[in-house]
């Protein structure tokens, strides 16, 4: 992996160089990461153990929570450890692995959000054919396609990263390895690679965002023909999805769908979609979803009852 590079390790500058602020960063992101893992694992366990949450919507929500937990894990632990570490080094191979993981789980989240929109479209616009179209087999095929799509996108990204020769310096002005900060360190003309990167990641971000927005416009337009109760329930679900889409795609589009320039707020914007959104997703879906909350209460009662009998 290092045939194009004389650099064997990089130094991540992180979010701040101030010792006191670094301690604050440690506390804040430790809380965020623990909250992300607890929230998403709770949703995963609840969906797997509940018979009432067997619909395709919860099938996709299960994978969204799984991807959120993995996505945050690929970024947050190193940020937390580095915030208290005097030596914030990352080897070349670890850096390339993080680039792959960041894009793999990030793209998988994009595709799962699209699948959730497809599910809502069929449920609201084709209710009589919902169970036939969104069968367990079809949903499984969609998830497999999403995994494969994320994998091939990440392979394209890592191949671009592996083309970059690094002769020094090795200071990455970021808290994680991504193609954008690595391009600034490469000792070559990166115009074409930058163009390929923006074309690849930018197309995924903007194209997916447009697909999602159009699908939800169609869904909301079709709700005019539903009863007041059905409209209220559908709106509650769709609004949750739209909030997640905006929170995730807004920062992603800002980072990946623009010319090769850097801004001072880039690191904080990246924090929002790599750590903030995975933390918020469980709250958005559970606080607005009565079925998930009821299933969690039932799971809690069963757990506490079995513990008291021991």
UniProtKB/TrEMBL annotation:
It comes from the Eukaryota. It is found in: Cell membrane. The chain crosses the membrane at residues 24-45, 57-80, 100-118, 138-162, 201-223, 235-257, 269-287. InterPro entries: GPCR_Rhodpsn, GPCR_Rhodpsn_7TM, Olfact_rcpt, Olfactory_Receptors. CDD domains: 7tmA_OR4A-like. GO terms for cellular component: plasma membrane. PANTHER family: OLFACTORY RECEPTOR (PTHR48002). Belongs to the G-protein coupled receptor 1 family. This is Olfactory receptor. It comes from Mustela putorius furo. The gene is LOC101677989.
């Amino acid at each position: 992996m290092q045939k194009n590079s004389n650099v064997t390790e990089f130094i991540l500058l992180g979010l701040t160089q101030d010792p006191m602020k670094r301690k604050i960063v440690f506390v804040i992101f430790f809380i965020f990461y623990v909250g992300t893992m607890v929230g998403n694992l709770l949703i995963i366990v609840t969906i797997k153990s509940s018979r009432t949450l067997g619909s395709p919507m919860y099938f996709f929500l299960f994978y969204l929570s799984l991807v959120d937990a993995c996505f945050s894990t690929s970024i947050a632990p190193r940020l937390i450890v580095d915030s208290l570490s005097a030596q914030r080094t990352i080897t070349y191979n670890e850096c390339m692995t993080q680039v792959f993981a960041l894009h793999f789980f990030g793209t998988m989240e994009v595709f799962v959000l699209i699948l959730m929109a497809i599910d809502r479209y069929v449920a609201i616009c084709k209710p009589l054919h919902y169970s036939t179209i969104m069968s367990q087999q079809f949903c499984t095929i969609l998830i497999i396609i999403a995994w494969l799509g994320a994998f091939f996108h990440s392979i394209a990204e890592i191949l671009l990263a592996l083309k970059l020769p690094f002769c020094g310096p090795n200071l990455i002005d970021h808290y994680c390895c991504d193609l954008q900060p690595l391009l600034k360190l490469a000792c070559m003309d990166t115009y074409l690679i930058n163009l390929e990167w923006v074309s690849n990641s930018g197309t995924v971000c903007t194209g997916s965002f447009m697909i999602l927005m159009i699908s939800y416009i169609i869904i909301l337009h079709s709700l005019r023909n539903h009863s007041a109760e059905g409209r209220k329930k559908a709106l509650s679900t769709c609004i949750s999805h739209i909030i997640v889409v905006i929170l995730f795609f807004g920062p992603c589009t800002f980072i990946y769908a623009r010319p090769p320039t850097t801004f001072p707020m880039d690191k904080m914007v990246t924090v929002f979609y790599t750590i903030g959104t995975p933390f918020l997703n469980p709250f958005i879906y559970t606080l607005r979803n009565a079925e998930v909350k009821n299933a969690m209460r039932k799971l809690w009662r069963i757990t506490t009852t079995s513990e008291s009998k021991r």
